[in-house]
Amino acid sequence: MNTKQKYKLVWLPCSDKNKLAEKFYVPNYRTQLPFLINNEEQSKQFSISEKDLLLGVLVGIEDIESNNSYGINTDKDTLLYLLDVLGNGFQFKTPEKMILDLSYNLLLEKAKENACYYGFCALILSKAPKQTQDEFYNNFIIPNVKNRKLKKQIKVFIKNKESLNMSDLLII
Fold first, then answer.
1. C-alpha to C-alpha distances, 40 to 37, 59, 93, nearest whole angstrom
2. Where does residue 99 rank: exposed (0-12), middle (13-18), buried (19+ CB within 10 A)?
3. Which of 9, 63, 115, 166 has the fewest CB atoms within 10 Å of its CB?
4. Helix 95-125 vs helix 76-89: crossing angle, to nearest 10
5. Are 42 and 33 within 8 A, CB to CB?
6. pTM for the whole thing?
7. What is the dihedral of CA 138, 8, 44, 47, to 10 degrees?
8. pLDDT per position as a tens digit, 49-63
Protein backbone atom coordinates (compact mmCIF):
# COMPACT_ATOMS: atom_id res chain seq x y z
CA MET A 1 0.00 0.00 0.00
CA ASN A 2 1.35 3.40 -0.89
CA THR A 3 1.44 5.42 2.32
CA LYS A 4 2.58 8.65 0.72
CA GLN A 5 -0.09 11.33 1.17
CA LYS A 6 -1.61 12.28 -2.15
CA TYR A 7 -2.48 15.88 -2.86
CA LYS A 8 -3.76 17.56 -5.97
CA LEU A 9 -3.31 21.13 -7.10
CA VAL A 10 -6.70 22.51 -8.15
CA TRP A 11 -7.00 25.85 -9.91
CA LEU A 12 -10.41 27.41 -9.26
CA PRO A 13 -11.71 30.32 -11.34
CA CYS A 14 -12.44 33.66 -9.73
CA SER A 15 -15.42 35.62 -10.98
CA ASP A 16 -18.08 38.07 -9.85
CA LYS A 17 -20.46 35.12 -9.44
CA ASN A 18 -18.47 32.98 -6.99
CA LYS A 19 -16.80 35.73 -4.93
CA LEU A 20 -13.73 33.53 -4.45
CA ALA A 21 -11.32 36.44 -4.92
CA GLU A 22 -13.05 38.54 -2.26
CA LYS A 23 -13.11 35.64 0.20
CA PHE A 24 -9.37 35.14 -0.22
CA TYR A 25 -8.13 38.73 -0.02
CA VAL A 26 -7.77 39.67 -3.69
CA PRO A 27 -10.91 41.57 -4.68
CA ASN A 28 -11.29 42.19 -8.42
CA TYR A 29 -8.89 39.32 -9.23
CA ARG A 30 -10.53 37.50 -12.13
CA THR A 31 -8.34 34.61 -13.17
CA GLN A 32 -7.66 31.47 -11.07
CA LEU A 33 -6.46 30.63 -7.57
CA PRO A 34 -4.55 27.44 -6.68
CA PHE A 35 -5.65 25.18 -3.81
CA LEU A 36 -3.82 22.08 -2.63
CA ILE A 37 -6.37 19.47 -1.59
CA ASN A 38 -6.18 15.91 -0.38
CA ASN A 39 -6.89 13.49 -3.26
CA GLU A 40 -9.44 11.66 -1.12
CA GLU A 41 -11.45 14.89 -0.86
CA GLN A 42 -11.53 15.58 -4.59
CA SER A 43 -14.17 12.93 -5.30
CA LYS A 44 -16.64 14.51 -2.87
CA GLN A 45 -17.84 17.99 -2.05
CA PHE A 46 -14.98 19.75 -0.30
CA SER A 47 -14.58 23.10 1.35
CA ILE A 48 -11.53 25.21 0.77
CA SER A 49 -9.66 27.11 3.43
CA GLU A 50 -6.88 29.64 3.75
CA LYS A 51 -4.49 26.77 4.53
CA ASP A 52 -5.46 25.01 1.26
CA LEU A 53 -4.83 28.29 -0.58
CA LEU A 54 -1.50 28.89 1.17
CA LEU A 55 -0.27 25.40 0.25
CA GLY A 56 -1.71 25.81 -3.24
CA VAL A 57 0.08 29.12 -3.75
CA LEU A 58 3.41 27.57 -2.75
CA VAL A 59 2.93 24.68 -5.17
CA GLY A 60 1.26 26.90 -7.77
CA ILE A 61 4.20 29.29 -8.02
CA GLU A 62 6.51 26.35 -8.71
CA ASP A 63 3.95 24.99 -11.16
CA ILE A 64 3.94 28.28 -13.08
CA GLU A 65 7.73 28.64 -13.06
CA SER A 66 8.23 25.09 -14.36
CA ASN A 67 5.56 25.59 -17.04
CA ASN A 68 3.44 22.73 -15.69
CA SER A 69 0.33 24.88 -15.36
CA TYR A 70 -1.21 23.99 -18.69
CA GLY A 71 -3.71 26.60 -19.75
CA ILE A 72 -3.68 28.36 -16.40
CA ASN A 73 -4.00 32.09 -16.77
CA THR A 74 -2.82 33.67 -13.55
CA ASP A 75 -0.56 36.38 -12.27
CA LYS A 76 2.55 35.32 -10.34
CA ASP A 77 2.76 38.72 -8.60
CA THR A 78 -0.72 38.21 -7.16
CA LEU A 79 0.28 34.76 -5.90
CA LEU A 80 3.36 36.27 -4.23
CA TYR A 81 1.14 38.92 -2.67
CA LEU A 82 -1.20 36.19 -1.36
CA LEU A 83 1.77 34.30 0.01
CA ASP A 84 2.70 37.38 2.01
CA VAL A 85 -0.88 38.05 3.20
CA LEU A 86 -1.48 34.43 4.22
CA GLY A 87 1.96 34.07 5.79
CA ASN A 88 1.26 37.12 7.94
CA GLY A 89 -2.24 35.88 8.72
CA PHE A 90 -0.86 32.57 9.96
CA GLN A 91 1.79 34.56 11.88
CA PHE A 92 4.91 33.07 10.31
CA LYS A 93 7.97 35.11 11.24
CA THR A 94 9.69 34.74 7.85
CA PRO A 95 8.84 33.24 4.45
CA GLU A 96 11.59 30.66 4.99
CA LYS A 97 10.06 29.56 8.31
CA MET A 98 6.65 29.34 6.65
CA ILE A 99 7.90 27.06 3.86
CA LEU A 100 9.75 24.80 6.30
CA ASP A 101 6.81 24.56 8.71
CA LEU A 102 4.27 23.82 5.99
CA SER A 103 6.48 21.14 4.44
CA TYR A 104 7.07 19.58 7.84
CA ASN A 105 3.34 19.53 8.64
CA LEU A 106 2.52 17.77 5.38
CA LEU A 107 4.99 15.03 6.37
CA LEU A 108 3.81 15.02 10.00
CA GLU A 109 0.22 14.47 8.92
CA LYS A 110 1.16 11.14 7.32
CA ALA A 111 3.32 10.10 10.27
CA LYS A 112 0.41 10.72 12.66
CA GLU A 113 -1.87 8.59 10.51
CA ASN A 114 0.62 5.69 10.52
CA ALA A 115 1.20 6.00 14.29
CA CYS A 116 -2.55 5.77 14.94
CA TYR A 117 -2.84 2.78 12.61
CA TYR A 118 -0.02 0.86 14.29
CA GLY A 119 -1.27 1.82 17.76
CA PHE A 120 -4.63 0.30 16.92
CA CYS A 121 -2.94 -2.78 15.47
CA ALA A 122 -1.01 -3.19 18.74
CA LEU A 123 -4.25 -3.07 20.71
CA ILE A 124 -5.76 -5.76 18.50
CA LEU A 125 -2.71 -8.04 18.67
CA SER A 126 -2.39 -7.64 22.43
CA LYS A 127 -6.08 -8.47 22.77
CA ALA A 128 -6.79 -5.25 24.67
CA PRO A 129 -10.32 -4.99 26.11
CA LYS A 130 -13.01 -4.10 23.55
CA GLN A 131 -13.73 -0.83 25.40
CA THR A 132 -10.06 0.22 25.06
CA GLN A 133 -10.07 -0.67 21.35
CA ASP A 134 -13.33 1.23 20.81
CA GLU A 135 -12.05 4.31 22.64
CA PHE A 136 -8.81 4.31 20.63
CA TYR A 137 -10.77 3.84 17.40
CA ASN A 138 -13.10 6.75 18.18
CA ASN A 139 -10.43 9.10 19.55
CA PHE A 140 -7.54 8.39 17.17
CA ILE A 141 -8.52 6.37 14.10
CA ILE A 142 -11.64 8.28 13.10
CA PRO A 143 -10.12 11.80 13.34
CA ASN A 144 -6.63 10.94 12.03
CA VAL A 145 -6.74 8.09 9.50
CA LYS A 146 -7.89 9.49 6.14
CA ASN A 147 -6.32 6.97 3.76
CA ARG A 148 -9.13 4.82 2.32
CA LYS A 149 -6.94 1.72 2.04
CA LEU A 150 -5.89 1.98 5.68
CA LYS A 151 -9.51 2.47 6.75
CA LYS A 152 -10.55 -0.60 4.77
CA GLN A 153 -7.68 -2.62 6.23
CA ILE A 154 -8.67 -1.57 9.76
CA LYS A 155 -12.25 -2.73 9.17
CA VAL A 156 -10.95 -6.12 8.00
CA PHE A 157 -8.79 -6.33 11.15
CA ILE A 158 -11.77 -5.60 13.38
CA LYS A 159 -13.81 -8.38 11.74
CA ASN A 160 -10.92 -10.91 11.80
CA LYS A 161 -9.07 -9.89 14.96
CA GLU A 162 -8.85 -13.45 16.29
CA SER A 163 -6.89 -14.73 13.29
CA LEU A 164 -4.44 -11.84 12.71
CA ASN A 165 -0.67 -12.07 12.80
CA MET A 166 2.10 -9.46 12.46
CA SER A 167 2.52 -9.87 8.70
CA ASP A 168 -1.16 -8.94 8.17
CA LEU A 169 -0.49 -5.51 9.65
CA LEU A 170 2.25 -4.31 7.31
CA ILE A 171 1.61 -1.22 5.22
CA ILE A 172 2.77 -2.16 1.73
1. 8, 18, 32
2. middle
3. 166
4. 60
5. no
6. 0.58
7. 80
8. 888 889 888 888 877
